[in-house]
Amino acid sequence: MEQIKNELLTVEISEHGAELQSIKDSEGHEYLWDGDANYWGRKSPLLFPIVCGLWKNTFRINGKEFRMNRHGFARDTDFTVLAKGENRIILGLHDTAETYKVYPFHFNLAVSYKLNGNRIHVVWHVENTDSKDIFFQIGGHPAFAVPGCRKGEPMKAKLKLDEAEPMRVFGNVEGCLKPGYHKVETNGGMWEVDEETFKDDAIIFDHQQLKHVELLDENDEPVVSVDFKSPAVGIWNPAGKHAPFICIEPWYGIHDWAEFEGEFKDKYLMNKLQPGASFMSEYTITIGK
């Protein structure tokens, strides 16, 4: 387990999956979900090289079929610490013979965590080390403890969105999406959610409708804020489990459309890198105001 800290925050990161494990303030208050496997055994997995699900867990490259489980393999793979300071750490992963069997591209993937006051900057860097174009999706999946909620009790939370009437993508068809949109009604961006909200899985907003989401306390003050520039974001809780957390997930990628059987490169919200090129993006987690 690796740790970075400053005068306001102490953050722990596991080399397994380069996954956040803890976010505590100077008083020892924990903001991240604890990963209790009775509800959901992860805390903040990194999604790569796909985000969400493939139709029939299958994708095609030049007509050849490959299989990959939901959210890809990075979250279940050990990373290497590339650099570390008191308030910053960089972890890396590159292709291996095993990854090439399921994802036939050569790549370097790095994720860095940097503290700046009460903010955690999460930066993704993907480099094409192949001799051909590579295609990938990438996303975050941080789970935050909902103020006032306990395990085993119905989850209720209040969020504040930077868009008053965003349009969600329809789902869920065997873990994938169907074309179409539905307006999410809020009170000027204030959005109260419960477990029923997520009965059809995550609520997904694409077309970069949202760039800022806050998790509020009982006084409508922000406990955690997430800022991002990704084309999509998912909001999720495991419906029916009485799990006291909310995931706010910036995504450069999304589920397959139901019955999609096209090429991997033609998936919705796919990212492409030419040989030698690289991709970099950042999202930030702010604790408190």
TrEMBL record:
Gene3D superfamilies: 2.70.98.10
UniProt keyword annotations, A-Z: Calcium
InterPro entries from the UniProt entry: Aldose_1/G6P_1-epimerase (IPR008183), Gal_mutarotase_sf_dom (IPR011013), GH-type_carb-bd (IPR014718), LacX (IPR037481)
Cofactors, names only: Ca(2+)
CDD domains: Aldose_epim_lacX
Any one Pfam family match given in the protein's UniProt record, by short name: Aldose_epim
Subunit structure: Monomer.
Name of the protein this chain belongs to: Aldose 1-epimerase family protein
Organism: Prevotella illustrans
